[in-house]
């Protein structure tokens, strides 16, 4: 049976790739630059999902610093550029993207990570051949949880919203999908923070990406 959607928009961190360790490393390097305490990966993972500026804001405020985040960001982005390609593709993701692509389904990535870091990571992990469109946190005036990036990707792909599916792991993905008026699938293995993914109104909740192919 043919896949029921013409465009699938994926979140990146916590959905397609596990980037928690490299993000944590870049945050801790930045904290060390400012002579602040560092954090373990689990703590920093809880701050992922709202873009790099908010991530650094959480880290610095938790560390008791009132530093101007505008002064902090250049150093963080420099450190992140050094670690951004270390993310690991989740099991079954590459095969799922290939299968959807082979069926003629258009695929896109919508992330709050700055766009300049997205394509190099997709290239490095062999995912770029399957991806038709990208929006990062700095691509448009609005980002997730706004539905604007999803609507933009649908327009770019020439696909009506009733044929679009969002796949993510967090509240910002859920809210973006709701704002755009598209159904969404949530994965259980990402960075959900406090979101109860099994009771969040998703079309489906999956433990591994290949289960996405079972939608009909």
Automatic annotation (TrEMBL):
Active site: residue positions: 11
Pathway: Organic acid metabolism; glycolate biosynthesis; glycolate from 2-phosphoglycolate: step 1/1
GO biological process: carbohydrate metabolic process; DNA repair; glycolate biosynthetic process
Residues that hold Mg(2+) according to the record: 11, 13, 169
Alphabetical list of InterPro entries matching this protein: HAD-like_hydrolase_sf, HAD-like_sf, HAD-SF_hydro_IA, HAD_2, HAD_sf, PGP-like_dom2, PGPase_prok
Coiled-coil regions, chain positions: none
NCBIfam families: HAD-SF-IA-v1, HAD-SF-IA-v3, PGP_bact
Family the UniProt entry places it in: Belongs to the HAD-like hydrolase superfamily. CbbY/CbbZ/Gph/YieH family.
Name under which the protein is recorded: Phosphoglycolate phosphatase
Source organism per UniProt: Luteibacter pinisoli
């Amino acid at each position: 049976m043919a896949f029921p959607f013409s465009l699938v928009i994926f979140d990146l961190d916590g959905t397609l790739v596990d980037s928690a360790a490299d993000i944590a490393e870049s945050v801790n390097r930045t904290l060390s630059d400012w002579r602040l305490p560092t954090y373990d990966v689990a703590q920093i993972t809880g701050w992922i999902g709202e873009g790099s500026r908010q991530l650094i804001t959480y880290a610095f405020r938790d560390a008791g610093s009132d530093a101007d985040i505008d002064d902090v960001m250049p150093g963080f982005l420099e450190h992140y550029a050094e670690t951004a390609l270390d993310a690991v593709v989740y099991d079954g993701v590459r095969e799922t993207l290939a299968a959807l692509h082979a069926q003629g389904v258009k695929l896109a990535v919508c992330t709050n990570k700055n766009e300049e870091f997205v394509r190099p990571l997709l290239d490095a992990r062999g995912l770029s051949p399957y991806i038709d469109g990208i929006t990062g946190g700095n691509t448009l005036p609005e980002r997730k949880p706004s539905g604007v990036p999803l609507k933009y990707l649908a327009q770019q792909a020439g696909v009506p919203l009733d044929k679009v599916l969002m796949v993510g792991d967090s509240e910002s993905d859920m809210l973006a999908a709701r704002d755009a008026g598209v159904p969404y699938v949530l994965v259980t293995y990402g960075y959900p923070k406090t979101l109860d993914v099994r009771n969040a109104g998703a079309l489906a909740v999956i433990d591994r990406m290949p289960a996405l192919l079972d939608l009909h």
